[in-house]
Structure formats: C-alpha cells, structure tokens
Write a structure and sequence with these properties.
The protein is mainly alpha-helical. The protein has eleven helices and no strands. It has one domain: MetI-like fold, CATH 1.10.3720. α3 (about 55-65) packs parallel to α9 (about 160-165).
Length: about 220
C-alpha cells in the first residue's frame, strides 16, 4: 500500500478544507445577504465544478498558474519555482474544485437563519460582524460541519484535476487516487484493491459520521 500517497492526500484534503473554511464562509455570507442582483453569476461560478469535467477545470487552472500567466510569473519570482506540478499548485486546484461542496452547504444554512433574529440584533445597534459571529454562526453548525466534511472527502478522492495540475510525482503530487490508477495500469490489482478498499472505508466512515452528527444536531432544539 502506498502510504506516501495516502499521507499526501490527507495533507491536501486537510489544507484544502482549511482554505475553504476561510474563504467559503465570507463568500457564502455575501451570496446570502448581498442585495446585488448579479450575485447569481457568482453562484454559478462557484457551482461550475459540479458540472464541468475535471480535466477541463484542471487545464484552465494549469494555464492560469503556468509560467506564461501573471500569477505564475509572480509566484515564480517569490518562491523560486513555478506552481504547476507542486503541492501548492494542487492546493489551488483542489480549492477551486471543491468550493461548491463547502460554499453551498454554508450558504443554505445561513439562509435558513430566522431573519427576524438578525433584524432584532441590528436594531439594538449590534454590528453585522458581531451579529454574524454571535447569531448566524451558532445557528449554522449543521451546514458548517457538512461543508467541512464534504470538502475533505471530495478532495481525498480527486483524480482528474490532480493529474492535470500536479502530474504524478511520488511524494510531491502523487495522491492516493493516482496511486490506484498506476497500480491498475501495472496490473497490480492486489495493491489497487487494498488501497481502494481503504479509501472506500474511510469515505463511508466520514459520510456516516456526518449524517450521524447532523441527526444529533437536528434533534437539538434551535433557539
């Protein structure tokens, strides 16, 4: 079993989840509470990875962070190396690819908060930021947990985007899904079976834990 690839996938999934937590919460808040009429365009962009083939998304990410792009050139000047075929490049691609799995549950839960509670808080002179911290966040635990778990699980099994942006560099960009693919290509079905079974069990446990936690939260009265 390729433990190096497994550990790399866990690192990538953890880093992606943390970035999405930092970016997804304010983005979801803006989508729900912004009065802008054109915000549906932002929602469409966020949801695009759900319908876009991973190879297409991976190709455009590769072009966007490549040596000919402003982002790629700026990063190369700062870091001394480019973004493609690095862990950092994988992280960028994974954040974009898993974004709807975080933002959509966040936004759905924010939208379910009773608007009267927010208006009452605002009328008492509490700032929007403080209202969000003291009212919206505590009442949105279910959506936050769902988004976090789904982002982690989705990133753990990525293949197409990872292969396009990171390639297959052992210890650097070779994730567990690529390791399984390589084992099948080399006709090592025993190794592919062991790794696939481990990924299946982990994914099932993650989702089962999520549904169990959600059920316990549903049964808890909301004030």
């Amino acid at each position: 079993m390729d433990w190096t690839a497994i550990w790399l996938s866990i690192r990538l999934a953890s880093a992606t989840t943390l970035v999405l937590l930092a970016l997804g919460i304010p983005l979801a808040y803006w989508i729900v509470f912004s009065p802008r009429r054109w915000k549906f365009l932002v929602e469409a962009v966020v949801a695009l990875p759900l319908v876009l083939p991973p190879t297409v998304l991976g190709f455009y990410v590769l072009v966007a962070i490549g040596p000919l792009s402003p982002v790629g050139r700026a990063y190369a000047r700062l870091a001394g190396h480019g973004l493609p075929f690095t862990f950092e490049g994988l992280l960028i691609a994974s954040v974009l690819y898993s974004m709807p799995f975080a933002v959509q549950p966040f936004a759905a839960e924010f939208a379910s908060v009773d608007r009267r509670l927010l208006e009452a808080s605002w009328s008492l002179g509490v700032s929007r930021l403080e209202t969000f911290r003291r009212i919206v966040i505590p009442l949105s635990v279910r959506g936050l947990v769902t988004g976090i778990i789904l982002s982690f699980a989705h990133t753990l099994g990525e293949f197409g985007v990872v292969l396009m942006v990171g390639g297959n560099l052992p210890g650097v960009t070779r994730t567990v899904s690529i390791s399984i693919y390589d084992a099948v290509q080399s006709l090592d079905y025993a190794a592919a079976s062991r790794t696939s079974l481990l990924l299946l069990i982990v994914s099932f446990l993650i989702l089962a834990s999520t549904y169990s936690l959600q059920r316990s939260i549903w049964l808890r009265p909301r004030h």
